[in-house]
Amino acid sequence: MTMLLVNPQESHSHYYVNYRMPTPPSESSTILQLINMSSQYQDSTAPAVVSSSAENNEVAQALEIARESPDGAKDPVVSSILENALVQIWNKVQAQPDSYVMSRDEFAVFNFFQYRFTGNKVAIAARKRYWDNTTGP
Predict the structure, then answer these.
(1) DSSP code of 71?
(2) Which pTM was predicted?
(3) Where do the domains of the chain lie?
(4) Helical H runs in 21-118?
(5) pLDDT band at 65 (very low <50, low <70, confident <90, very high)
(6) Which secondary-structure segment (H or E) carries 25?
(7) Binning pLDDT at 50, 70 and 90, where does residue 45 land?
(8) Using alpha carbons only, how large is the chain's radius of gyration in Å?
(9) Residues 109, 64: contact at Cβ < 8 Å?
């Protein structure tokens, strides 16, 4: 904490004001604030597509944090967002194990957690289906 001396016009009076130097936010905390802000302003009267889009953006931002920041994946908010997304994706794959094709965003999350599915034949087939149905950027 730094103390600032404020000296009014009178020469015999001094006032001390507590002042805390701001600390620059880390990249992950700034992005987490954006995630929290985006979920605060979701319009509950808007169609479900908007909510889904906001959810997708939230997941994409969390995935970026987890990939780019050394401690990103350990952050409880990021971890929770990604875990929830993975559960939803895996439920879709298991509901249609021979036909479900993940979207690009779903595959990105699934691929981030690929170590959890080592040797799982349903997961291997889901990854293969994704690549077989990918048509470039």
Answers:
(1) T
(2) 0.61
(3) 26-38+46-132
(4) 27-40, 48-68, 76-95, 104-112
(5) very high
(6) none
(7) very low
(8) 23
(9) no
